[in-house]
Amino acid sequence: MTTELIVLASASPRRSELLESAGITFRVAPADINEDALPEEEPIDYVLRLAEGKARASAENESSGRFFVGADTIVLCDGEIMGKPKDRADAERMLRKLSGVAHEVVTGFALYDKERKGVVREAIRTKVFFKQLREEEIQSYIDTGCPFDKAGAYAIQGGAAHMVQKIDGSYTNVVGLPLCEVVAALRVMGALP
Ligand SMILES: Cc1cn([C@H]2C[C@H](O)[C@@H](COP(=O)(O)OP(=O)(O)OP(=O)(O)O)O2)c(=O)[nH]c1=O
């Protein structure tokens, strides 16, 4: 089995870098889908549905490739699902809410086998503990522009590393793709030797 058959259905440079770091050969074919939550939808159901939707949409658009990997990451804080902030005020609100408390980062991923029409889905949760943030820290971090394409308005791998006191669980899951689990699932699917 050749690994060129793996397609990452994501525009996220972080997801590409993570998959590359595992030595996996793949190509990228992002899929644009509606990311609105359904009424009363549970967070886990939401990330799994979007991950599968991205994988299937990419598979439909592409004429080659067999194993399509989709993922979706959210931050869960005190009952709120945080996606990417809409604007500066939203980023400020999210970071103020995360300040000094623990939250969860949930990434759902889906592997869709276009040949067998089968799908494997999994959601991984990581607990992240933030220090108390000073207002100047919040403002200068938002000034960098980093928060705007990140769930919860922060990037643990970037300018927000100093805001994180500790994590409990997978680090790569916070960045956007739980690597151990994704690699294991690719193996189970027969996409990797
Ligand atoms: C919490 C956190 C999120 N993120 C990122 C991961 C995801 O790229 C992003 C959440 O948005 P997603 O909607 O999961 O993904 P995306 O729109 O970037 O890419 P695509 O839908 O094409 O796959 O937040 C970080 O990079 N670092 C972090 O610490």
TrEMBL record:
GO terms for molecular function: nucleoside triphosphate diphosphatase activity. One of its GO terms (cellular component) is cytoplasm. InterPro entries: ITPase-like_fam (IPR029001), Maf-like (IPR003697). Its cofactor is a divalent metal cation. The record marks 14, 73, 157 as: Important for substrate specificity. Gene3D superfamilies: 3.90.950.10. It is an enzyme of class 3 (hydrolase). Keywords: Cytoplasm, Hydrolase, Nucleotide metabolism. It catalyses: UTP + H2O = UMP + diphosphate + H(+); dTTP + H2O = dTMP + diphosphate + H(+). Pfam families: Maf. It comes from the Bacteria. GO terms for biological process: nucleotide metabolic process. Its EC number is 3.6.1.9. The active site is at residue 72. Belongs to the Maf family. YhdE subfamily. NCBIfam families: maf (TIGR00172), PRK14368.1 (NF010948). Nucleoside triphosphate pyrophosphatase that hydrolyzes dTTP and UTP. May have a dual role in cell division arrest and in preventing the incorporation of modified nucleotides into cellular nucleic acids. This is dTTP/UTP pyrophosphatase. It comes from Geomesophilobacter sediminis.
